[in-house]
Amino acid sequence: MMMLKVLLGVMLVGLAASDDANCPQPFGRGPGLGDMRVASRLADRIDALEKRMDTAKERVTGYVHEGEIVRARVDSLYEEAHHCKSHHFQCGFPEDRCMLDTKVCDHVKDCANGHDEDDDICTNRLPIGSVFDGDMPSGACGADIDHIRFTVIWEQRLSYFPSQIQLKAAVTVTHHDGTVESNIKKGYYSFSDHAVFLEAEDGGDGRISLIDCIFDGVQDDRCVAEMRDGSGHICATFGLVRLDDHH
């Protein structure tokens, strides 16, 4: 944009010099009226070009983001087709190799393609202050919970176990009768799973549920929450959205 403005300035100087050399100036030196009209039209065209460039930039940014989402979905489908057992990480094309998830984001490229150390894998999506909030399906898991929110209040990444971030979250639940209950829950964020796992939450009738929230690897402003009962069975799935500005 600055280059366009500089170009306009150079053209004005050139117009003034040409006017000085070829036309009489009864009222002093300077560009003539015709030159000023030309300059005005050029300025209008430059403004229009700048607006078009800004619009194009926004579109390109949108296309890039959409491309990242598509890539994440393709990666997810690839991982499903070449599924690894629990606590293992899929290196992806061309290896199709599964390795222990404890080797992910340990600052050593164990996959031939380096996928285990990619930035989109090793991004901490839950820094301190992260807040996620959402409504639970009515009667989910037999619990009398309508609404749930968690806020990350503490975290630590151990040098000898870098594949996870240990954390604590303030979990607030709103029950059917409107009562609100808050507790501090321990948990961890797993880089290989793009997910946070929080310890059991009392559903209000003695049933215990584990809270997981899984990111798609691209959109950090939302995650898919899964509630598990005491046997580990997924009894509810719902969305949580980020309320803070860390994304």
Quick gist of this model?
The chain is α+β, with helices and mostly antiparallel strands.
Can you put this structure into words, describing what you see?
This protein is extended. It is 28% helix and 31% strand. Mean pLDDT is 79; it is low at 15-21. The protein is built from two helices and ten strands.
Secondary-structure element string: HHEEEEEEEEEE
Strand order of the largest sheet: 3-4-5-6-7-8-9-10
- Helix count equals 2
Low-confidence region ranges: 15-21
Percent strand equals 25-35%
Q: Give the distance, in angstroms, between the N- and C-terminal Cα atoms.
A: 28 Å
Largest sheet: 8 strands, antiparallel, barrel
User: How many domains would you count in the coordinates?
Assistant: 3
**How much is the radius of gyration in Å?**
29 Å
Which structural class matches the secondary elements?
A: alpha+beta
Mean pLDDT: 79
CATH fold group of the largest domain = Lipocalin
What is the total tally of β strands? 10
CATH architecture of the largest domain: Beta Barrel
Helical proportion, percent range:
25-40%
- CATH class of the largest domain, anyone? Mainly Beta
- Overall form: extended
